[in-house]
C-alpha cells in the first residue's frame, strides 16, 4: 500500500481514521505476516502463527468468566497486560491491555457470562470437557 492509498483512507470521512492509525494498522498487519512467514519457514522459531501465539496464552481453550452484571467485566486483565507487552516486543503498535482484552473477547479467547444465562448448558459442557469445540453452539442455542 502506497502513500496515495494511505492518504485516501485517512481522508475518507466514512472511516474517520487518522493517518497515524492507518499506518499502525498496516505495520501490525506486516508484523502478523512476518511472524507467519517465519513460523512457516522454521519450526524452531520462537515466533508462531498469530493464531497460535494468541491461543497459547489461554492454553488453546477459551477462558470462561462468570459475572453477575456487565458492569463487573474488567477493562483489562493481567493476561491482557502480558499479551500487550509481548506484542509490543514483536513490533506491534497501539496494542494496550484494553485493546488486547477487547480483541480477546471478540476472537473468543475470553467468554463472559452474565447472571444465570446459559448455565445449565454451560455446566454440561464443562463436565463433558467439550467446551472449546461446542461453545459457539451454546450461543446459538441459548440466544
Question: In terms of topology, how is this protein built?
Answer:
Elements: H1 3-11, H2 19-41, H3 50-56, E1 63-67, H4 78-89, H5 97-107, E2 110-114, H6 119-128, H7 131-142
Parallel strand pairs: 1-2
Helix pairs in contact: 1-2, 4-5, 6-7
How many β-strands, per DSSP?
2
Strand content: 5-15%
CATH architecture of the largest domain: Orthogonal Bundle
CATH-derived topology of the largest domain: Endonuclease III, domain 1
Q: What structural class do helix, strand and pairing data support? A: mainly alpha
The CATH class assignment of the largest domain is Mainly Alpha
Shape: globular
**Order of helices and strands, N to C?**
HHHEHHEHH
Helix content: 55-70%
Multimeric organization: single chain
Sequence of strands across the biggest β-sheet = 1-2
Query: Span from first to last CA?
Result: 41 Å
> Which stretches are low in confidence, meaning pLDDT under 50 for 5 or more residues running?
126-143
Describe this structure in a few short sentences.
The protein has 143 residues and is mostly helical. It has seven helices and two strands; from the N terminus they run αααβααβαα. A two-stranded parallel sheet has the order 1-2.
What does this protein structure show overall?
The chain has 143 residues and is mainly alpha-helical. The protein folds into 2 domains: 1-45, no CATH class; 49-143, Orthogonal Bundle (Endonuclease III, domain 1). It is built from 7 helices and 2 strands, in the order αααβααβαα. A two-stranded parallel ribbon has the order 1-2. α1 packs across α2, α4 packs across α5 and α6 (119-128) runs antiparallel to α7 (131-142). The longest helix has 23 residues, at 19-41. The termini are far apart. The model is unreliable at 126-143 (pLDDT under 50).
Amino acid at each position: 500500500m502506497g502513500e496515495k492509498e494511505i492518504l485516501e483512507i485517512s481522508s475518507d470521512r466514512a472511516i474517520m481514521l487518522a493517518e497515524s492509525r492507518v499506518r499502525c494498522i498496516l505495520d501490525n498487519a506486516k508484523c502478523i505476516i512476518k511472524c507467519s512467514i517465519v513460523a512457516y519457514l522454521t519450526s524452531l522459531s520462537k515466533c508462531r502463527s498469530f493464531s497460535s501465539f494468541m491461543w497459547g496464552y489461554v492454553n488453546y481453550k477459551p477462558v470462561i468468566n462468570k459475572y453477575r452484571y456487565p458492569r463487573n467485566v474488567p477493562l483489562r486483565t493481567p493476561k491482557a497486560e502480558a499479551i500487550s507487552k509481548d506484542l509490543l516486543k514483536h513490533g506491534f503498535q497501539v496494542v494496550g491491555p484494553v485493546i488486547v482484552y477487547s480483541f480477546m473477547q471478540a476472537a473468543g479467547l475470553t467468554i463472559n457470562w452474565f447472571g444465570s444465562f446459559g448455565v445449565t448448558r454451560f455446566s454440561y459442557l464443562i463436565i463433558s470437557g467439550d467446551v472449546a469445540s461446542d461453545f459457539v453452539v451454546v450461543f446459538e442455542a441459548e440466544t
